[in-house]
Each structure stands twice: as C-alpha cells, then as structure tokens.
Amino acid sequence: MKIGIVGLPNVGKSTMFNAITNAGAECANYPFCTIEPNVGVVPVPDERLDVLTKMYNPEKTTHAIIEFVDIAGLVKGASKGEGLGNKFLSHIREVDSIAHIVRCFEDSNIVHVDGSIDPIRDIETINLELILSDLEIIEKRLEKSRKMLKADKKYQAEIDVLEKVKKVLEEGKCARTIQLNDEEKEIIKDTYLLTMKPVLYIANVSEEQLANAENDENVKKVTEYAKREGALTIPLCVKIEEELASLDEKDKKEMLEALGIKESGLDRVVKASYDLLGLMSFLTAGEPEVRAWTIKKGTKAPDAAGKIHSDIQRGFIRAEVVSYDDLVREGSMLAAKEKGLIRSEGKDYIMQDGDIVLFRFNV
What we know:
Layout (H helix, E strand, L loop, with lengths): L1 E5 L6 H9 L17 E5 L3 H10 L3 E3 L2 E6 L14 H9 L3 E7 L15 H31 L5 H16 L11 H7 L10 E6 L2 H4 L6 H12 L3 E5 L1 H8 L3 H11 L5 H12 L2 E7 L3 E8 L4 H8 L1 H5 L1 E8 H7 L2 H6 L4 E3 L9 E7 L2
C-alpha cells in the first residue's frame, strides 16, 4: 500500500517525509527501510501486537506496513509539464491514496510561494493540476470510445460514465466527489484518474497552534473543504513530528505527555491512511512470530490465507478463528478453546478486523 505525500513548496512536505523515514536513525516505534530515495516504509501502529508479543514471547513481531512516497515538487502548469510536472503526475498515478500537506502556520522566515497563507488556495492549486490532467485523459478516452461505438453499441455505457466524470471535472471538482455505482466504477477503473484517489488532508500547524488546532481558523477551513469531498483532516505540527521520530520510546512518551497529546500525529496519519483504503488486519500468533496481515475489508477466508502463502489458499480446508478480545480475556488459546470460543469457519467466512487465525489446508 502506497501513500503519496503531496504539497506545495515550503508547506512541510520534506520535513514530514524526514519524520516518516526517521532521518536515518533507528527508532523502536518506527523501524523502517528505504526502498529508494523517495520511499519510506513504516509499520501500522497496532497495540494488539504488543499484547500478543507479551503473551507468546515470539522470535519476532511483524507489523502491517505502509509505504510513503515523497512525490516530486509541483508548480502551476504541472499538468502541461511545467517544472517537475510530468514526474509529479507519474509518481502520483502509482500510489493508492494521497496525503496532502497544507500549510496553516505563519512564519516570516519560511517564504510561501504565493506570498501569503491561504490553505484553500493551496489545496485548489494542486487539485486544479490533477483535474486538468484527468480531463485530458477523459477526453482522449471519450474520443476513442465514440469511434468504437460505431462498431459496438456496448461502448455507450462507457461514454455515459466518461461524460458524467468530465462534467464534474469541468466544474473544477475532483472525480472522487462523484457518486458512481460499482458498475460505473469498474468501467472507468483503468483510466487511473488522479482525482479519484482517496485523500487525507494534513493541516500543518505551528507548535503554538497545536494545543487548540481544531479551533484554528485555517484548520477549520481545511476541515470544511475536506468534508465536501468526504475526506478527513488531521492537524499536526510537522516540526514536532520530526523531533518525536528521533526519540526513543521513553523520551517520546514523556514529550507527548508534556504536549498533552495521546498519540503522535504520525501515528494518526498512518492509522487513518490504512482505514482510508478500506484495509484491516487479521493476526497470526505463536512462538515463531506474531504478525499482522493486511487485507481489504470484506475479504473471505481463503483469500486471506493467500496473503500468507498461495499453497494455503489453494489447499484451504478451514480457518480456526478466535477474536482478539476473547483470546486476551481468556489468556490462552487452550482456555479460549475450553470456553468454545475458537470457531471453525469455511470458505464463505468474511474475515473480521483482529481475527486471530490458524488456517488448515492440504496440498
């Protein structure tokens, strides 16, 4: 799963990425590896794994992960190839969702590219470039579909959806604001529209703003804008996040307490990004390893088994399932079994978040 970090120059995008990749230092809460210079990998915070690790004392504990991609800079005219526009657009096309960092803080030492702080203007600058790029794709596809319609009437359904999307884009709105049914979504799936991707807005505030960020006028503007798109806004201070990421677990906890914050903004971003894509985790637990496995909500047991190994999916017999809450309450698999809390589920079982599973299979 890839999340693309976007934003105008001097909004805190690079600082945020440095916090995510932990600036090259090892940190217990955010072990990471760099796949390439602009990709950082962080685990999805999951307190359940910490509890299971204490129960099983495994050789290793493996979290679900998210990749964050530091998208190349953007300038007005990116959709026409200005600046690093083409690189920006190609990178964003490859990610699953977008983390859009918006500057909400005043700082005379950090120049804003447009000369003043205006979060909605900044959001619309980037969105407009993505909309223009999507319009170009839709128009080319429409031209092709209209030609194909002469030979095959089935293309009328595709034309109808494309024109529906085009109308919204021409109004300056993102494609994700359109209400499409499953059939319509399938029709335009292979257009890979940039503005169809789910988005999370990150309102970057100063340390002074952070304590009362929800009531900050700039943050409220971003939140209202996001609501119209069905998106979420997370206010955080990117500068503080970079500092938190460099601390060990004890010092990090003390700093959070001093700031009056329950969890870091980065933790919230990672969790929200995971949820944004309709993802959840099922768990496996034992002495060799305690692990979270990422699946889409609504995944059936055999497909979940395939995440572990294709042979387990191919030879699937059943899934022995216990809920995390039941296991922790009873204290062991044996105690849960004696209480009849371990269920035997078949091929049609839809996995639930926090299911602890042992797959039985025969190949």
